[in-house]
Write a structure and sequence with these properties.
Structural class: alpha+beta
Shape: globular
Number of helices: 10
Length: 335
C-alpha cells in the first residue's frame, strides 16, 4: 500500500485523476462482490454499474464513455456516449467494465475485477461493431520480440529467450473456447505450459504483462473493447499488446467491412490508446492479480491497482472501508 501522491493531469490542472478513479472501481467491486457465487451475473453487473455511476459522477473530469461494456450481451451498462464526471476539465475518454468476468463472478471463480481506464478526448480507438480481436500480450522483457502474426512456437521461444527461461517454463494464458482448439495444440506442441480461463480478458492481459502472476504470454481471440482497456494499462506497465480484428461470424465481418474497418491491420497499445492514460482495477473474486473483497460486519477491505502511463507508476492499494462513514457520503448501500 502507498499513500504517495502523484501530480498529473491529462490536459490541465494538478490533480491525481488515477486516485479518483480507484474509488470508482472500489465501489463497483464492493457492490458486485455481494453477488459472488450466487449464479446471477446480471445482478452482480447491475450492482456494480449502479455503484460506479454514483461514484464516477464525483470525479473531477469532463468524461464521455466510449467503451461501456454490456451492450454485447444485453447486460446492464454504463452506456457509450454517456457523460460522466463533474463536467470540468480535463476532457477525457472513459472505458469501463464494472464487472470484468461476470460469469466467473456469478460462479465464485477467481479473476473477477472492476476496471476503468481514462485517456484524453479522442485518444481511445473506437471498436464500433467489432466484438472480437486476436491478441498477443507480454511484459516489458519480451515486448520487442513478439509479433501477432508470427508462428506460435516462434513467439514462445522469443519470450523464453528474452526472459532467460526455458521454453518449458513459459506459461501462456488464453480463453478456454472451441475457437482455440488448434492454438492450444500448437502451444502444447511448442512445449509451453498453459493456463486456461473461462472469462476475464483484461485480467489475463495484465497477468501476462506483470511479474506478479506467473504468466508470461497472452494469446488468442478475446473481446475488442477489452483490448482497448488493456492497452491503457499495458502502456503503464511497459509491456506489449498487439491486436487484429477477428470477427467470429459472417454478420460481424460484413458489419466491419461496411463500416470501413481494415481486418488485416495490426494495432499496438499506443494505437489502441493514444498518449497518456490512467487505469484502475479492484479485485472482486480474487485471483493472481488482486485479492477478493473481504467483508466484515462494519465494512470491507479492497485491493486495487492504479497505473499512470506517463510516469509508469503502478500503485498497489489496500483500503479499509467503514460502512457507516462510506455510505453517509457516497449514497451507496453496501451492507
Amino acid at each position: 500500500m502507498t499513500d504517495e501522491t502523484e501530480v498529473f493531469s491529462l490536459t490541465s490542472g494538478d490533480r491525481n485523476l488515477g486516485m479518483e478513479l480507484v474509488r470508482v472501481t472500489e465501489a463497483g467491486a464492493m457492490a458486485a462482490g455481494r453477488w459472488m457465487g450466487r449464479g446471477d451475473k446480471e445482478a452482480a453487473d447491475g450492482a456494480a454499474v449502479d455503484a460506479m455511476r454514483l461514484m464516477i459522477a464525483t470525479c473531477q473530469m469532463d468524461g464521455i464513455i466510449v467503451i461501456g461494456e454490456g451492450e454485447k450481451d444485453d447486460a446492464p451498462w454504463l452506456s457509450n456516449g454517456e457523460r460522466v464526471g463533474t463536467g470540468v476539465p480535463p476532457e477525457v475518454d472513459v472505458a469501463v467494465d464494472p464487472v470484468e468476468g461476470t460469469t466467473i463472478t456469478s460462479r465464485g471463480m477467481p479473476g473477477g475485477i472492476a476496471v476503468i481506464a481514462v485517456a484524453g478526448r479522442g485518444a481511445m480507438w473506437d471498436p464500433g461493431p467489432a466484438f472480437y480481436m486476436k491478441k498477443i500480450a507480454t511484459g516489458p522483457e519480451a515486448a520487442d520480440v513478439v509479433e501477432l502474426e508470427a508462428p506460435v512456437a516462434d513467439n514462445i521461444k522469443a519470450v523464453a529467450k528474452a526472459k532467460g527461461i526455458d521454453v518449458e517454463d513459459v506459461t501462456v494464458i488464453l480463453m478456454d473456447k472451441p475457437r482455440h482448439k488448434e492454438l492450444i495444440r500448437q502451444i502444447r506442441e511448442a512445449g509451453a505450459r498453459i493456463r486456461l480461463i473461462t472469462d476475464g480478458d483484461v485480467a489475463a492481459g495484465l497477468s501476462a504483462a506483470t511479474n506478479r502472476s506467473g504468466v508470461d504470454l497472452l494469446l488468442g481471440t478475446g473481446g475488442t473493447p477489452e483490448g482497448v482497456i488493456t492497452a491503457a494499462a499495458i502502456k503503464a506497465l511497459g509491456g506489449c499488446l498487439q491486436g487484429r480484428l477477428d470477427p467470429q461470424s459472417d454478420g460481424e465481418r460484413q458489419d466491419l467491412i461496411d463500416a470501413g474497418y481494415d481486418l488485416t491491420q495490426v494495432l499496438n497499445q499506443d494505437e489502441l490508446c493514444v498518449g497518456d492514460s490512467f487505469f484502475a482495477a479492484t479485485g472482486i473474486t480474487g485471483g493472481d492479480l488482486l485479492p477478493a473483497v473481504q467483508y466484515r460486519a462494519d465494512g470491507a477491505t479492497t485491493h486495487s491497482l492504479v497505473m499512470s502511463s506517463r510516469s509508469g507508476t503502478v500503485r498497489t492499494i489496500t483500503a479499509e472501508h467503514q460502512w457507516t462513514k462510506l455510505m453517509k457520503y457516497s449514497g451507496i448501500h453496501y451492507d
